[in-house]
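From the pipeline queue, job 12 of 40. The input is one protein chain; the requested action is below.

Action: predict structure.
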Amino acid sequence: MTETNKNIFPVHHEIMSREEKEIFLNQRARVIWLTGLSGAGKTTLAKHLEKELVSRGYLAQILDGDNIRTGINNNLGFSPEDRYENIRRIAEISKLFLHCGIITINCFISPTEEIREMARHIIGAEDFIEIYVNAPLNICEERDVKGLYSRARRGEIKEFTGITAPFEVPQKHDLEVRTDLGPVEESVKQILELALPRIALE
């Protein structure tokens, strides 16, 4: 224990419990973690999924890579160490949302098994729903309205996942959706079929 930690006194036992908040919201909190290449469709899926959940009376919050990196993680780059720290902080934020009883929809490349396993460990395996949003690299490049892939291929962006940095195909995912093979509504339907039974308060 560091000297700083010796001066920290958590008060978790003094505040309302997660279970009380879940009863109030009439839902079970879960983290739906969308992983996949840039351009695979994670954010598009998340936006549709959030609307579907809200239409059913559930409270959900999207955490997206671009928004997080312009805010709480704006001091991080894209080195392996910074990528790891980026996901670690996101997982800790997600854990706070869990204790608020909120369903969190996370859209992050999270490119390695080590990083995803770390997030699963922080959040808790029982609350972690991993969705592999899969689309071939050439499709992701075609969808790239920001021009990031072309810049990476020209060497203007270093450590770009799928081009100059690896993406490890998930091995522990709960569901794989192929966003190149059908409309977004079909992928959302698949995710809901998996997630709703774990969200509904019995």
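Job complete. The chain has a mean pLDDT of 91.
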